[in-house]
Amino acid sequence: MKVICDRAALLAAVNMASGVVATRTPRPQLTCIKLTARKSGKSADLTLTATDGEAALRLTVAQVDVQEPGEAVIPADKLRQIVSAEEGDPTLTIETEDDACHIRGQDARFKVFGFKPSEFPSIPDFEKIFAGKDGGKTAIFTHTSDGLSTMIGRTLFATARENSRYAVNGALLKREGKKLEMVATDGRRLALARQTLAQSDKDAAPITCIVPARTLGLMQRLMDEPEVPVRVAVTDSQILVAVGTPEDGGIRAALSSNLVEGAFPPYEEVIPRDQDKKVVFDRDVLSSAVRRAALLTNEESRGVRMKFKGSERQLELSSRAPEMGEAEVNVELSSYEGADLEIGFNPTFIVDALKVVSDPNVVMELKAHNKPGVVKSGNDFVYVVMPVNLQ
Fold first, then answer.
1. Over the stretch 47-75, which tens digit does the pLDDT of each residue have?
2. What band does 308 get if pLDDT is binned at 50, 70 and 90?
């Protein structure tokens, strides 16, 4: 194999592929990236493949000159370090000799020992699966890159971290007809994002699965071009994602991952239906006020007190920390319906939700000081957050 690569494009692909490289494993091949150089007529590309046994990623770099097609399996950490270090070179030449890989820049040469390409673990055949040639065991739908990225962004932050309830260490993905939902919760808050698929077979089998949080993060990183179509396939145990279709140049990036086992909590029961207080506020104004009020909180007093005054259409935010001080911020409300209310929330939980809302006007629905609050943005985003006790 001998290829001349655009260094910046290669570095971006190596950084992405490194996200699924195993760090601790008895199989050293899982710590590597497989390079496959192909040439057909005037077209040529370099494919990078990585897997840790649970997830697999395949990326195609088109900014290459393939002089000799071939394959190589190289330790990911060394490949990443070398490509990063050669920052002064616009291109790098990669050439293989037996199991060794030579990487050359303008004034440097590196020889890295790898493994035989035949020893690299196999990954799913994405073209076969997305062509429906796997025996019909896969449910497939297509959506826009920016649509899926937005849904992930609106839910990923609410997934649990190292929770003993393994099923909430990811997000629920649910498709029925043209309706697509994604839900995440960590037990103290719940985020629900909805969208409508541009194209969908109304008779297609429904999809319900739990996608690991890490996989969602990788999916979002792959979706850097807003209008590129993304296909999602779900089997009994895996989710597969392909960016790009045969009609627009083929699969540019493909990801597969094992699903999270278990039952997701009944999220419909968590969303309150009887809120009798409704607040409309400016997203940026409230976000700024919450962040400022949170400046004088600590581990013992994490909550920010929110005092809603209906007659004055005002919100008073305050916090107090022993031996530190106290803060008070006042905000004008666009509208307020219902009786006055005083309630406490974890400020981080409020700010997290406001970051992913695109609408400048956001609605908050409340019931009582010990009942959850609901943040809504149109019909596409619902966020439920539990209150905190304030002394």
1. 999 999 999 999 999 999 999 999 999 99
2. very high
Amino acid at 340: D
Query: Distance between CA 90 and CA 73 in Å, rounded?
Result: 23
Considering the entire predicted model, what is its pTM?
0.91
The closest alpha carbon to 238, from 139, 145, 113, belongs to 139
- What's the mean per-residue pLDDT of the chain? 92
Cβ contact 120:33 at 8 Å: no
Which domains are seen in the chain, by residue range? 2-119 (3.10.150.10), 132-266 (3.10.150.10), 271-385 (3.10.150.10)
pLDDT at residue number 169: 86
Look up tokens 């393939």; give the residue: 66
- Measured distance CA(391)–CA(379) in Å, rounded: 35
Taking the C-alpha atoms of residue 78 and residue 235, their distance in angstroms, rounded to an integer, is 35
Predicted pLDDT of residue 198: 77
Two structure tokens written together for 275: 């809120």
Q: Which long-range contacts (CB under 8 A, 24 or more apart) does 282-285 make?
A: 282/334, 282/360, 282/361, 282/362, 283/354, 283/357, 283/359, 283/360, 283/361, 283/362, 284/354, 284/360, 285/331, 285/332
Whether the CB-CB separation of 58 and 253 falls below 8 Å is answered with yes
d(CA 91, CA 134): 39
Of the candidates 95, 112, 100, the one whose C-alpha atom is nearest the C-alpha of residue 2 is 95
Burial of 146 (0-12, 13-18, 19+ CB in 10 A): middle
Crossing angle for the helix pair 7-17 and 213-222, to the nearest 10 degrees: 160
Which pLDDT does position 201 carry in this prediction?
67
Q: Which two tokens stand for residue 74?
A: 């190289």
Task: For residue range 153-182, list pLDDT tens digits in order.
Answer: 999 999 987 656 667 789 999 999 899 999
Question: Measured in Å, how far apart are the chain's first and last C-alpha atoms?
Answer: 68
For residue 224, what pLDDT band results from cuts at 50, 70 and 90?
A: confident
Q: Are 385 and 184 in contact (CB under 8 A)?
A: no
